[in-house]
Amino acid sequence: MTETETPVEHAAATRTTLLEAQDLHVDFASRGRRARAVDGVNLAIGEGEIVALVGESGCGKTTLARTLLGLERPSSGTVRYGGAPLSYDSRSLKAYRREVQLVLQDPTGSLNPRHTVYEAVAEGPRIHGLPDEEKVVADALSRAGLRPPERFFLRYPHELSGGQRQRVVIAGALALNPRVLVADEPVASLDASVRGEILALMLKLRADLGLSALVVTHDLGLAWNIADRVAVMYLGRIVESGPVEQVLTAPRHPYTQALMSVLPESPERVILTGEPPDPTRIPGGCRFHARCQVLASGRAEEAGVAARCRTEPLEILPAVPTAQEACHYAALNP
Predict the structure, then answer these.
(1) Cβ count near 13 (within 10 Å)
(2) Is the whole model's pTM more than 0.90, yes or no?
(3) What positions does the domain ABC transporter occupy (predicted)?
């Protein structure tokens, strides 16, 4: 460990990268224009690491997650798993999706109401032809905290609580013995009293099984409680990233500062100006400048970077474990 590295940064730097996005771009046609949903993203998830991807609705985080899962093909750039580029033929994708599993945010919508818990969890093992199906299902339910598992085999989703349904969804992912979970707003639909239980479960799975996870969320409190590192996304690009405690206790990008300001303990609320982001009309210069409170307050002008904020694009952030941000104003005080 170097003199300037924190223990968290050193641990992140020494982890083997398992899943990675390299200069990823994903475009969609939208009303005769191209929407740049993901517009140049580098992101790495190490073995046994939990990374939180945070941002407003529409910033591109779900599209990025779907692309990492192989559900969307990038317009350019590469998804790499275990050091190798992702192949999109059906056989390769089937093998990949056994290793990298999705956990959806709405267990009610993702579970078939006509299927029992057993059938829901057994679906993946059947598709992949795994032996000892009943043992696989029982083990997955047990790891997800539904014990004794046999008690849940013949139950239907409507007979379960919200937390139990989410555990069934997690069990369905665990049944394939994956190495990475991609969890899209995993506790957004749950009562506050249950959220802590699901977060504790995910941390236990990491400790017991060595699982890695990408947790997609708009909830900075969730990121604080579960993640090792956080990546903040705005208008298709990561604008700040680093160890979660460093980024969330001392955010440097104005957008991250605005997101943090809505938390109850924040001393000052930041009200963003301008229109919400439109991925078909990405502005020149810093993509956040039209809503930036630092620019609007005149502080960027005083620092002599206002013109650069409006006209000079920022470099795409690399996938590194140390704290970094894409901001002309913050760059004045590294």
Answers:
(1) 14
(2) yes
(3) 19-260
